[in-house]
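Look over this record as teaching material.
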Amino acid sequence: MEFDHNAFDFEDYFPSMIARMGAEAFIGELCTGFRMLMDVNQGLITFDSLKRNSLLLGLEDIRDDEIVCMLMEGDLDGDGALSQMEFCILMFRLSPGLIDGSKVNLGGGFG
């Protein structure tokens, strides 16, 4: 099962957000987004928490298999859920503008 990135319209606002807010504030916003979607008892974004909060994302018609694929896309440790680090990495991976300009956007802190 593979997540179809083209199934949803996605405008990549992340590069302009970093330019306007700065890298530190942007990371803070990603962390806020993670907390909005996470299961408060587990501290992770789980299937149930993502399904429950899908309305916040404007995804009221999302199917269960699409939620599973979204989680699989970012699940680096194989536990079926997203930690805050996995969520942030996924957001960066899904933003072509951030990948292309990561050294400029984040102050060259990579190597």
